[in-house]
Amino acid sequence: MISFDTSYSGLFVVLSLIFSVALSYWFYRRDKKLIDMKNAVRNLLMVFRFVSIFIILLLILSPIINSVSTYIEKPIIIIANDNSESIKINSDSTLLLKLPASIDSIVNQLSDNYDIKTLSFSNKIDDTLTYNYDGKITSFSKLFKEIENRYSNQNIGALIIASDGIYNEGSNPYYNAKNLNYPIYTIALGDSSEQKDIYLKEVICNKIAFLGNTFPVQIFYTTTGLKGQESKLIISQNNNPIFTKPVIITNDNFSETVNFEIEAKSPGLQHYKVEIVPLNNETNIKNNEKKFAIDVIDNRQKILILSNSTHPDIGALKGALTSNQNFEIECFNINDFKNNITLYNLVILHQLPSLTNNITNILTEINKSKIPVLFILGSQSNIKQINSQNLGIAINQSKGSSEDAKPSVNKDFTYFELNDDMKNIFNKYPPLVVPFGDYKTSPNCEVMLFQTIKNVNTSKPLLFFVNNSENKAGFILGEGIWRWKINNYIEKENHDLFNEFVNKIVQYLALKVQKDQFVLNHKKMFNESEPIIFDAEYYNNSFELNNDGDITIEIIDNEGIKYPFTFNKTEKTYRLNAGIFKEGIYSYLASLKISDKMLSKKGSFSILPINIESENTIANHKLLKQLTDFNGGLFSYPLHSNKIIDNIQLNKNIAPIMYSEKNIDDVINYKLIFGIILLLLSLEWFLRKYYGSY
Hints:
Blueprint: E1 2-6, H1 10-30, H2 39-60, E2 63-73, E3 76-82, H3 85-89, H4 93-110, E4 115-121, E5 125-126, H5 140-151, E6 156-163, H6 173-178, E7 184-188, E8 197-205, E9 208-210, E10 214-224, E11 230-237, E12 240-248, E13 253-263, E14 268-276, E15 289-297, E16 301-307, H7 312-322, E17 327-333, E18 346-350, H8 360-368, E19 373-376, H9 383-388, E20 393-409, H10 420-426, E21 432-441, E22 445-453, E23 456-468, E24 471-476, H11 482-492, H12 496-510, E25 518-521, E26 525-527, E27 533-538, E28 550-556, E29 562-566, E30 568-569, E31 574-577, E32 584-594, E33 597-608, H13 612-615, H14 621-627, E34 634-636, H15 641-650, E35 657-666, H16 671-690
Parallel strand pairs: 3-4, 3-6, 6-7, 7-34, 9-15, 16-17, 16-18, 18-19, 19-24, 26-33
Antiparallel strand pairs: 1-2, 2-35, 4-5, 8-10, 10-13, 11-12, 11-14, 14-15, 20-21, 20-22, 22-23, 23-24, 25-27, 27-31, 28-29, 28-32, 30-31, 32-33
Helix pairs in contact: 1-2, 2-16, 4-15, 7-12, 11-12
């Protein structure tokens, strides 16, 4: 529907009409040159003149066009295919080959009236339907989160999932489905019947052990349908058995936990294999073997957490650091601490010095022994004493008051790498309670986080580091980081990003200053679905970061095949994402060429296999049926996909949505109007000239 309007009274339109008629009539009646012109031609010219003048007068009145556009949004049907390895391991291959045709039939029959979107999921999300079944992990949580991110607030009609119902990462999809407002249709894959199988379910061990110590290993295995049979559990290193145990299966559903200890005899990465000798009538033998590795090191860093009083921040810090086996953590209230401070590689002072404990002797010893320290300020901190210590920060606190400050990442921070997930989650963290006042930092400070106060980014530091020659210090200028740990769990269902954040701070501070100009950092162990990341630094003769040179690296596999790469340059450092490698042990040679100097680094890392998809291959069709319980979904099999099509087409709740949009536009914006005026005036001029008026 289209209508015209103007901000002026309708009287002006009438007057414009009268004026246009009168002017056109007067012009063509007074001109004696037009007396001999035919009446029809003269009247036509009068009409041209009238229309042109009237349109121009209307444009002066600033008319607008009101229009209403109506469009229809089809309901979205999302089709998601489980592309994980368990589908291929335990499915009828003939039936599996027919699945693509079955899904294509759904797409073809619904595409006219529905907006079809397709996805494949496993440990990652693909935009298209794929059927190679090579995913190492199955996560329904990632699928539902991806759907929410892509299609929230849109007209989702239904979700169709083709899967065996087995998941091994994330939460139970039943709870995701429970909160949806659209139905789920499931296509059941795999075999849900009990199989004869013995499999290693879990191998639990620390990632790090210390030279000369023994480290515990726990193995859990389970069996189905093999009562009365016997096998053997073998743990080996470099194909040499170091532990064996008979496996005697006493019932059809048998399980056992085996505990043993291994002595860490040699430093470096040590690789082990756990296997249970397969039985002749087993359905699946891929789950009879697991590999693991231990990084044996000959030193451990001692971290001391000293606090003025009990505080939930202490538990959050200790929990994060305990996850790193390279750290030995001790926590004390300042009133109970009697140890020698020089025994520690790093000291964390929570709200110390305080108004009740000035810890002058401890601060003197820390400074004398050049022990790195992390200060965490709070309402009990003695700000005046901190200012007097020349630590790199001076706070002019206003009458002991405080305020809330949220973290904002400094884009120019270079001391260590912050990945995108960590940068993003800082935007979601709740505020810390910080001293209210003016802040002044020394020139040798590097700010990692700024304060955002009442949604306004400021230049006040929230977390920063001071590097004084051979000693380092860090400052968290507020209390309440325990809330960050809770928020991390709410967002990600784990504490990984918070733990990584705390560990990066402590690793940086506790790392002894090395005079090595070429530094290369990487993990010792990766899983086979994880990209290989290297970080590198070069320090010039003044021990300043510099990346003018180029770094190349050759990664060498077990067969001697070399994979060359060149590092990318960041602001002052280097980084390489070498991508994903298959299982194995790899060595490398990295070379840095700068000016006429050549530096090199050698090392190794391991890629561990992910066999989680082969552990449990019994399809969970019960779960698939539960997912359809809400909003009128349907459970089906690949050869019965027509049932899903019929149900969707008959479901009145899966319907298009009609939207109406009101548009307002100025008539003067339409170029056609000026074309009409020009055309009318041109025709009038031509006809007048043709008939001799000019």
